[in-house]
Amino acid sequence: MGSTFERNETDGLESVMEVGRRIVGASAKIPREAVRFLGSAHLTRRRGPTPGSVPGAMVLPADSPKPAIRVMAYGEAGLAEHAVERVDELRDLLQVEGGAAWIDVEGFGDQAVLSEIGDVLGIHPLAMADVVHVPQRPKAELHDGRLLIIVQMARLSEAGDIVIEQVSLVLGPGWVVSFQERPGDVFDPVRERIRSGNTRIRRMGADYLAYALLDAVIDGYFPVIEALGGVIDALEEEVVERPSRATLARIHATRRTLTTLHRVQWRQRDAVAAILRDEELPFTEPVKPYLRDTHDHAFQTLDAIETFRDMVVGLMDLHLSSTSNRLNEVMKTLTIVATIFIPLTFLAGVYGMNFDYMPELRWRWAYPAVWGLMIALGGGLLLWFRGRGWIGHAANT
Predict the structure, then answer these.
(1) Residues 340-360: pLDDT tens digits?
(2) In this structure, which topology does domain 7-320 adopt according to CATH?
(3) Among 94, 209, 242, 264, which is most buried by a count of CB atoms within 10 Å?
(4) Are 295 and 219 a contacting pair, CB within 8 Å?
(5) CATH 3.30.460.20 in the chain, residues?
(6) Furthest-apart CA pair in the chain: how many Å?
(7) Over the chain, what is the mean pLDDT?
(8) What class, spelled out in words, does domain 326-396 have in CATH?
(9) 245/28 Cα distance (integer angstroms)
(10) What does residue 124 show for φ and ψ, rounded to 5 degrees?
């Protein structure tokens, strides 16, 4: 089943809400795409050194690609973008007069390169260990004049999956470095703003760049939540019209995903609040109003997640009620059929006995009379059930 975003001649890019509805509602069974769409194993996979290891020791993932380093050095006068082959080149690229530099590192597959980046930029070994040992809780810590911000990025991949990945930001004097385990992020709007020329981000310093990256991660939850809204809409229709075991499994998967997003975003909101409260962190006064706006966005996403989580709990109750009502309808139908056939079975049993002296056996009209009695009994019971409201229109109102 395809789950990529498809172009529409009239509407342009397909809504992520429609993607969610299509993925989840495409099959009566539990489609693999739906389970993959609704869950990410990243946050359940904890990687770190063995107990008793040297503080700052790094344990790298075996399947992560080698680090790819890109630098955007900019100011009001201009912009320079570089793909860095050797880490020692960073020393020259970071010297931007009146501007800032963004070092983007993707991939944790080479410990020597990561250690050299830490040495060149003066990042504390404990901070570098937190960068590669995922997942860490969202937080903001100051290490030797370098501010480490750890957040969890949620995004929709091109295949329609929900991907949750740790992103680490380190703010230093005139630069920001971002670390993530694999390619793919939510930072394209920030890149476009840097390339656009005379924009606020080009006139501000590195602390504003750190804010912009943090804000992009927080705002990246909105399309994910929108897609989950489409999932919930599809599940609501399915619960009402055709509930099944697969429906209940999808509801549980959606609830699990919303619980994960709620836990992560709650901690990220607290991390942003801690940044706003701490006067020692290297954020200037002009940047703090923007951080408060990011804090407000985190609140908005939390409100939406909590609303959807309540809706999913309601869907579970609705599913159980619907299943119980269907079972009651089946049992009522079987009971009515059995009740009608009880007197008929009695009559058939009486006249099925092999006695020689039974008065009706040799009566000419006995057979049609018995049939008439049985039909009258059955019809009378049906009319009585209808009058009681057990069947027919009265039973459905």
Answers:
(1) 888 888 777 777 766 666 676
(2) Beta Polymerase; domain 2 (3.30.460)
(3) 209
(4) no
(5) 7-320
(6) 121
(7) 80
(8) mainly alpha
(9) 9
(10) -60, 140
